[in-house]
Amino acid sequence: MAEALKNYFNRAFVTPLAEVCSKHIPNFDSYSFLETVFYKDWDDLEMKQRIKHIAYSLKAQLNFSTSKNLHYITLVSEDIRINQNKKDTFEYLVLCDFIEVYGLDDIKASLNAIEKVTILATCEFAIRPFIIANPKLTFEQLYKWSKHKHESVRRLASEGCRPRLPWGMGIPALKKDPSPILPILETLKDDPSLYVRRSVANNLNDISKEHPKMVLKILNDWNNFSEERNWVVKHAARTLLKKGNPKALQLFGY
Question: What does the alpha-carbon distance between residue 194 and residue 102 come to, in Å, rounded to a whole number?
């Protein structure tokens, strides 16, 4: 599986990316960029290493201020999204990784970039260092995103703050106290998009592993409102049901 995924990041992907970058980034040297990407050890890199190395190679071409660099990354992402009609892609995680690694010294500019880039490729992994670095500011933005017009941004509001996001950086503070997450999930529980509601359920399922009583109360309050919300409740309770939690079983009539 990982072997197949790493092969997304190949010359057929990187060369067109260089062409788009050269349109928007002043003095972008496509030849130098490709030389930096495909260095002698490239074939030995695993998927995550390839993503980080492409982001590093982009940074080598971006010697402006952090806010300027993020501005150009945003322009590249919007060009690809609009002109290539792409959305929720996998390979353009390289742009998200750039923000994650090189944007922490300007959190506001990074959050602005994340809002736009996440429509092309989810920034659920990229947002996590910002939650750790400045939880107050980042959660204020996540809550605003929970009301965004685009479903990919609304999903990010939930998915990015999952306490146990697979493949994602751990956030011990949210495992200990998930209360900052709850207003976001409350806002999104009846979202028109299943893509978003699934994230809400997954987030609650994560929380249930440390805080079963908290989640059971939420699920009890939410249950039997609508067919869509009932699906969220049952999907969120799957770990509790698997463990045979009596109150979870009772919630579903067992």
Answer: 32
Phi, psi of 214 (to 5 degrees): -60, -45
The size of the chain, in residues, is 254
Q: What is the pLDDT along the chain (254 residues), one digit of tens a residue?
A: 456 889 989 999 999 999 999 999 999 999 999 999 999 999 999 999 999 999 999 999 999 999 999 999 999 999 999 999 988 898 999 999 999 999 999 999 999 999 999 999 999 999 999 999 999 999 999 999 999 999 999 999 999 999 999 888 889 999 999 999 999 999 999 999 999 999 999 999 999 999 999 999 999 999 978 899 999 999 999 999 998 989 988 888 87
What is the rounded CA–CA span in Å between residue 20 and residue 30? 10
Residue with tokens 């998200």: 96
Taking 3-state DSSP, the helix, strand and coil percentages for the chain, each rounded to the nearest 5, stand at 65, 0, 35
Contact residues for 95 (Cβ-Cβ < 8 A; gap 6+): 55, 73, 76, 77, 117, 120, 121
Q: Give pTM, 2 decimals.
A: 0.93
